[in-house]
Amino acid sequence: MSKGANNPKADLVQTHTEVENVKKELNELKENTQLNPTSAQMLASVMATVENMKKEMITKTDLAQTTQLLDDVTTTHCFKYWLNAEIL
User: Fold this and answer.
1) Half-sphere exposure of residue 58, counting CA atoms within 13 Å on the CB side?
2) What is the DSSP track for the chain?
3) Which residue pairs, CB below 8 angstroms and at least 24 apart, start in 7-10?
4) How far, CA to CA in Å, does 17 sit from each of 34, 49, 50?
5) pLDDT of residue 1
């Protein structure tokens, strides 16, 4: 994830793929291993944490896109206001 702030959509796609791969591996571990109750609880906790991280990444990406949209709208509005002031 080297382009962080430059391309949040690409980061989101990559992160989603990585999260899905981790979830798949954790599910395989869960299915192929006999776990004692403590280990099973820890595995469930790790899986929940991974899912929450994915949701957090989606939220941050949505926020970044919304912020960019607001910046674009503000810039456009200011430019139009300045342009109208110049014309008048």
Assistant:
1) 9
2) -TTTTT-HHHHHHHHHHHHHHHHHHHHHHHHHS---HHHHHHHHHHHHHHHHHHHHHHHHHHHHHHHHHHHHHHHHHHHHHHHHHHH-
3) 8/60, 8/61, 8/64, 8/65, 9/61, 9/65
4) 27, 16, 12
5) 41
User: Where residue 87 falls among pLDDT bands split at 50, 70, 90?
Assistant: low
Locate tokens 């820890």: which residue?
A: 42
**How many residues does the structure list for the chain?**
88
State pLDDT tens for residues 24-58.
Answer: 888 888 788 787 888 888 888 888 888 888 788 77
Q: What is the pTM of this model?
A: 0.49
